[in-house]
Amino acid sequence: MPAFNNTAFLCAYFSFNENADTDSILTSGGWTRVCHDKGSIETYKQFYYPGFIEFFMGGGEGTEVGKYTKKIEEAISVGDANVIIKDIVIYMMPYGMALYSIHTEQESDNLDTFTLSLFKMREMRRWNMEELTNFHTKAIAPIEKTALSLGCRSGIIENGNKLKVFQIITAPDKSHFDNDTDTLLFELGTLGKVGGCSHDAPDSPSRSYIERTVQGNRLSFFNNWKGLALFDTFTILGYDVKPWVRETWATDYFSMIYIHSLYCKFYLFKLNARFRDNPRQGEVLEKEYHDFERLYTFHRISYNFLPDEIDKAIDKALEITEEKKLLAGYISDYNKLHAEESSKRLNRLLTFLAIVTVFSTIWDFACMVNALLPFNEYAATVENGFRIVVSLTLLTVVVAIISMLKKPEKER
Fold first, then answer.
1. Residue 57: which residues within 8 A CB-CB, separation 6 or more?
2. In whole angstroms, what is the distance from residue 331 CA to residue 217 CA?
3. Closest Cα to residue 49, out of 237, 275, 304, 220?
4. Please, are residues 204 and 197 in contact by the beta-carbon 8 Å criterion?
5. Mean pLDDT of the chain
6. 16 in Cβ contact with 96 (< 8 Å)
7. Structural element, H or E, at residue 106
């Protein structure tokens, strides 16, 4: 029996047409919608906050995630590695975003087998290579076909050139791992050559970088497993792990916590791109962002400590909170500046209209005076009468304006 087991989920997202009948398109394409019974929802609400569970499983008044699966259950070869493609899951998210995950399983006596095969499968530029023909046919092609039927026109990876990876590596007991599990965790998390960092290979990362990365992103709560949250991967390395614990890692920590974090990250990426392409829509985008914050982000997700710690680690690795603050501030500042510019233009227009109104009012006032006291009886001509009255009235108005604008003595 092989010493190591690897369960991995390769993820990304694509945009779809929100006006499309997504349920009909997906079900007719061979996808099965995942529905949760009321009992399961209520059980999960004992461990996770209601809003978070209702978002993923339903049972609330808001919009829930539409989760669809397609069973694959096929063994393929990726180079020298034997990989089982278990299934593909599509998560239909708000704002026209569809996340997807490709579930793979591997067994081997050599951990390098896992890192090399996952490195190849996640790189979009390698999908047309001969050794990935089966992977493309079984895993990528169904997603591409579905994306096109849903109105996607920008490819199935919109945020870079590779898939995100959530992986679980386990062994029967501790003896299968070297003493330096931190370095091993780094190598697995970066999908690098296992042992390269330990032997200080010329092209391996420096020791200081490894230590800084591990110390800043490692999770360690129990003796038999550790985690490492990085920007492109989330890795759990453990031994003597109970089956129900592995199941929790896959169904809860990946399918809900990691997917939710990816959704937040991808949404921010998409919002940033939309704002840069059309900054004049800043006010609309700012309102949408506030709705997103109110409905689909959660400061805390669980009554228990571990899910929240996992969530915090993923948030930090993906730089979600930091990007939210920067992007929200950027859009808000632009909107304020745009509003100030609009206000200045409006003030200039109002000033012009006010001046026109003043002159019109002065003329009407002169006409009224002429009607009461005809100018031809008090002045040489009617024209001179108008000139005198208009000039005196205008002078009075100017003096009144100056006196109102003049600062009081106490404020000087």
1. 36, 40, 41, 44, 64
2. 30
3. 304
4. yes
5. 88
6. yes
7. strand 97-108
Distance CA 361, CA 358 (A): 5
The per-residue pLDDT for range 292-346, each reduced to its tens digit, is 999 999 989 999 999 999 999 999 999 999 999 988 888 888 777 766 666 667 6
3-class SS at 72? strand
Q: List 81's β-bridge partners, or say none.
A: 78
Strands 32-33 and 164-171, sheet pairing:
unpaired
Spatial strand order of the sheet with 225-229 comes to 32-33, 66-78, 81-93, 97-108, 4-15, 164-171, 233-239, 225-229, 218-222
Residue 31 CA: distances (Å) to CA of 68, 88, 146, 226, 233: 6, 9, 9, 35, 27
Pair of tokens at residue 140: 């990528």
308 vs 48: CA distance, rounded Å: 10
- The per-residue pLDDT for range 366-390, each reduced to its tens digit, is 787 767 767 666 666 767 777 777 7
Check if the beta carbon of residue 129 is closer than 8 Å to that of residue 78.
no
Angle CA 117–256–233, to nearest 5: 30
Q: List all residues 6 or more positions away from 118 whose beta carbon is below 8 Å from its beta carbon.
A: 6, 8, 10, 104, 165, 167, 191
Averaged pLDDT in 10-residue chunks for the chain of 412 residues: 92 94 95 93 94 86 84 95 97 96 96 96 95 96 96 90 97 87 93 80 83 93 95 96 95 96 96 88 88 91 95 96 89 74 70 73 74 67 71 76 67 52
Please name the residue that has the structure tokens 């089966």: 134
Say which DSSP state 128 is in.
T
Look-up of token digits 């530029």? 125
